[in-house]
Each structure stands twice: as structure tokens, then as C-alpha cells.
Amino acid sequence: MINTLLKHKNNLVKSMEEILGEANVLSSYDERYIYSTDSTNITNPEEIADVVVFPVNTLQVSKIMKYAYANNIPVVARSAGTNLCGACLPKHGGIILNFTKMNKIININKNNLICIVEPGVIIEDLQKAADAYNLFYPPDPSNLKVSMIGGSIGLSSGGPHTFKYGSTKDFVIDLEVVLADGTIVNTASECSKDVTGYNLTQLFVGSEGTLGIITKAVLKLIPKPESKRVMLAYFDSLDDTSKAVNDIISNLITPSVIDLMDKNTLQTVESFYPSGLLTDKAAALLIEIDGFKSTLDEQYKKIIEICYKNKSAYIQTANTKEEEERIWISRRSSFGATAKLAPNVVTEDVVVPRENIVPLVIGIRKICNKYNLKTCIMGHIGDGNIHPNIALDLRNPIERKNFENAKTELFELALSLNGTLSGEHGIGCEKSYFINKAVESNCLFLMKQIKKLFDPKGILNPGKIF
Ligand SMILES: Cc1cc2nc3c(=O)[nH]c(=O)nc-3n(C[C@H](O)[C@H](O)[C@H](O)COP(=O)(O)OP(=O)(O)OC[C@H]3O[C@@H](n4cnc5c(N)ncnc54)[C@H](O)[C@@H]3O)c2cc1C
Fold it and tell me: For ligand 1, is residue 424 a contact (CB within 6 Å)?
């Protein structure tokens, strides 16, 4: 372990205090433990950070990296720490580089349709700031009230609006990155089009802090849609639900959101946050359309017609902002609601081509039943990206073993349906054991060469992805 090279821990804390000031360095056991967790609840008390630091500018990050590089100390970048795959757990100890104090929206440029932000900006704060200029930043992980730009670039996070607008990767134009040895680089320009050389920007997007540390991002914004409409369409069968999705799309309608909640999700959310969801239906689709007011009525009517043609049992339309909000809260509560069922929730993130969604969902249900796991299935059906939320007690060795077996079978199922392990949550240390089955060996070799080039000493977030 790299951490065994860490002989002089006191020197490390002292050096960090010299770079950042005492107020920006934490070193007690409890503080180090707290910042060594994420949303997976799998922190091993023996694998925690040696120090947690809060840089306030790029120069400080560069100095920290220079020190870490010279002394072979692992560095794990952390924004809000909400990822679901163990992506920022300090498996080999070292420095947690926490970005909550680098949280400035530096600029919003209405004419160029871009913004420049630091990694600690909360996604919802950026959306609100853009809204004031009548602009829109669409990537919206369901926990956008807490998750941050740095982490969402680190994972190329998606969310409900990905179906129409794309995920984080589609909005990153240029990055300021501190490399493993402390060198500061800018990967591209502020231009919306730039093919001057290799696309280094996209190499860092989704790299989970294993290639470099993002200290600034130029992101694309789009004009805010003038209006939107929201509905929940219920179905008695998954087949009909999926047919309705395909029909809507083949009728040349691109909803801004088309998300699925299965019966267990409807029941669990309704008991947690009663809002009148129909709990006896097999599934519901949350459908949102956006655009010019004048075009929405026609699309709205057409979607309702298509859903009824595909045997929708009931359609709940939102006619006020409050009704819209209620539907959205139900959808966004699915993780929190599932967390009421057991001490832990594990969310998986497999993705398949959309036409394989029905066998995927049926297969997930079968696997979870086989291993006696309580599971609420939801996700971005338009993208073929499904999230089984599995409620269990990870302290119980039988449940944990059952979950591990189910996870492997779930990955095998996704691959057998031409899909893959993760659509938006990343690999971290939770799925890395399976990556050699999901990525062809020549590509895996290239990825490992890239890692070596950017991080020759293996200090950047070791133990992740591979
Ligand atoms: C309730 C809930 C709902 C969620 N819903 C969604 C969803 O709908 N869609 C979705 O895609 N995800 C979702 N997630 C997963 C996750 O929250 C998001 O991916 C989120 O965007 C991660 O942001 P974060 O700030 O918490 O990142 P972190 O967890 O702090 O970091 C994520 C990764 O990025 C790296 N990183 C962080 N900062 C930097 C930096 N400055 N430079 C380089 N690398 C960095 C980290 O090392 C780590 O590998 C959800 C999670 C929860 C708990």
C-alpha cells in the first residue's frame, strides 16, 4: 500500500497547515473518519484519510500536489461526497482534498452561453444563478441540492433531464486541472467549438479524480425553456409502459424527462411522502415536456393520447406549480423513501439499449427475489438507465453476501443485454472488480496506459476504476 510510505504523518499535517493555514486542515480521528465516507456506507475504519484539507484557490491545490508527489502520498478529491460507488473513499489513506471552500460562480456570460465555476459550487445554486439570466444548466442528479460541480464532472453525472439534454459530459467546455506533480493546465478554450488537438477535456470528465484535480470549469449553458408541463402516467404492465415510451419518441416528441417508477417505488414513496400516488399500478412514467408555450399544448395532448392507446390506467396531470412540485418531490424521494426500509440503501446504475429495458427490469426483479432483497426499481427509462434501490442491512453478513451475488448477476444480465455497468454513477471501488468483463481488453490496456501517463506514481485516488 502506498500509505505505508507515509512515515511522517505529523510532518504531513504541519506541511498542510503551512500551505493552507490551520483553519483549513482537519486531523482528528473523527474528522478524518467523517470525510472518509460517501453514500455507499462501506467505509472501512482502517482505510481513512490521514488529513483532510480545504484549499481556497488553485495555487494551494498545486502546492498540495507538489508535496504529495514528492512524498508519494495518495490524494483523493472530494466535493460533496455523495457518490454511490465508493469513488472518493481514501482506500490507501493520504490527503482528502475537499472542495467545499472553492465554491464561487466566477462568471455567467449570457452572450457566449457559458459560465465559469469552481468545483465546490452546488449544482442547484448554479441552476438558480443561470435562471436569473434566463439560462439553464440541465444536468440534474436527483440530489442536486447538495452535490457539486467537481464531483459531477468527476463522474459525468446525469439525471432526469439527460434524455433530452445530455449528461454532464455534454456541458463541459474547458477545465483548469492540477496534474499529479502540481502542474496547472487548461485543457481547451472557452469556445463552444474546439478541435485543436486531442480532446483532453473529456478525458478528465468521468475520470473519478484518477487523472488530475479539477479546480475550475467552463460549462455550457442553454437558453431556458419558456414553459414546461408535467404528468404521471400509470400502467398495469411494464410492457405497456415501455411501448408508450417508444411510441412517444417515434411520434417525434422528445420529452425533457421520461422516468420510470415501479410498483414497489410507488408504494414506498407514498408511505414516506403521501401525495396521492396510485400504489396498485405496475409502473408510472413521470413525463415532462418543455419549450415554447405555444407548442406544448399539442405535444401534451398527443402524449396523453399515446399513453391511453398503450392502455395507461390513469394519467395524473399537474395543472399548477404546486402539483408539478409534488410530482417531482415523489420522484426525487425514491432513494430517501427506500432508506426507511432498512439501515442501508445501495443504488445500482446499469444501462442497456432502450429496446432491452423490459427484459432488464424483469431480470432485476428475478435476481432480487432470488436473493430476498427488498428492491424499488426506478430510473431513466428513456436512456435505458435503471436504478434498482436495494434496501438491506450491510452489517448482516448473509444480506451482504446475497447483495454481492445479486450485484454480479445484475452486471452479467446488463452485459447479456448489450448494456454496461454504469450509466451515470461511475465505477469507484464498488464495480471495479467487474470492469475487465465490461470493457474490451485492448481498451482497458489503453486506459491503464493513460492512467500511468497522467499519474506515474499512482497517487491520484488509488484503488478506483481498475
Ligand atoms: C440521493 C442521491 C441521488 C442521486 N441521484 C443521482 C442522479 O440522478 N444522477 C446521477 O448521475 N447521480 C446521482 N447520484 C450520485 C452522485 O450524488 C452524483 O453523481 C453527484 O453529482 C456527485 O457529486 P459530489 O459532489 O457528491 O461528488 P463526490 O462524491 O465528492 O465525488 C465524485 C467523484 O468525483 C471526484 N471528484 C470530486 N471533486 C473533484 C475535483 N475537483 N477534481 C477531480 N475529481 C473530483 C471524486 O474523487 C469522486 O471520484 C445520487 C446520489 C444520491 C445520494
Answer: yes
Check if 80 has its Cβ closer than 6 Å to any atom of ligand 1: yes
Rounded to two decimals, what is the model's pTM? 0.96
Averaged pLDDT, groups of 10, the chain, 466 residues long? 55 97 98 96 93 98 98 98 98 98 98 98 98 98 96 98 98 98 98 96 98 98 98 97 97 98 98 95 98 95 98 97 94 93 96 96 97 97 97 96 98 98 98 98 98 98 97
Nearest to 166 by CA among 244, 219, 207, 122: 219
- Domain 2-100 adopts which CATH fold? 3.30.43
Name the CATH architecture for the domain at 105-223. Answer: 2-Layer Sandwich (3.30)
CATH of domain 227-335: 3.30.70.3450
Which grid cell is 146? Answer: 447538495
User: Would the CB of 429 count as within 6 Å of ligand 1?
Assistant: no
Distance 244 CA to ligand 1 centre (A): 31
- What residues contact residue 361 under an 8 Å CB cut-off, 6+ apart? 238, 260, 262, 377, 386
Q: Using the atom order of ligand 1, give the atom closest to the CA of residue 423.
A: 11
**Contact (Cβ atoms closer than 8 angstroms) between residue 376 and residue 264:** yes
The structural domains of the chain, with segments of one domain joined by +, span 2-100, 105-223, 227-335, 341-441
Q: At 107, is the secondary structure helix, strand, or coil?
A: strand
Q: Looking at beta carbons, which pairs linking 102-106 to residues 24 or more positions away fall under 8 Å?
A: 102/55, 102/56, 102/57, 102/150, 102/215, 103/148, 105/129, 106/216
* Three-point CA angle 18, 217, 39, nearest 5°: 75
Q: Which residue has the cell 479546480?
A: 215
